[in-house]
Specification:
This protein has 118 residues and is mainly beta. The protein contains no helices and eleven strands.
Length: 118
């Protein structure tokens, strides 16, 4: 089972940017970024296939960009125009890609906190 380590979270003002990284211990297929805010269910934010196809939840379209560097076994989430409602713990997940959508797998990172102040 691949090990995943997220980094790049922090505190930022509304309108600011952060770039999250997810480093995998081995080769990866499709990857997804999830987030979980206090009292809410974990939600899929963005997914990327092994070929670079992507999809996003509507609330982040146009603001977040998921990318990958296969040579480094690393996936990124560039987050721009951040809003207070983006505050959450962000997790990466190694999964699959079916019917043009990301499907979660069993490997999760430990999470990284993103806090957006108003």
């Amino acid at each position: 089972q691949v090990q995943l380590v997220e980094s790049g979270g922090g505190l930022v003002q509304a309108g600011g940017s952060l770039r999250l990284s997810c480093a995998a211990s081995g080769s990866i297929n499709a990857m997804g970024w999830y987030r979980q805010a206090p009292g809410k269910q974990r939600e899929l934010v963005a997914g990327i296939s092994s070929r670079g196809n992507t999809n996003y939840v509507n609330s982040v379209k146009g603001r977040f960009t998921v990318s990958r560097d296969n040579a480094k076994n690393t996936v990124y989430l560039q987050m721009n125009s951040l809003k207070p409602e983006d505050t959450a713990v962000y997790y990466c997940n190694a999964g699959g890609w079916y019917n043009s959508k990301f499907v979660s797998g069993n490997s999760w990172g430990q999470g990284t906190q993103v806090t957006v102040s108003s």
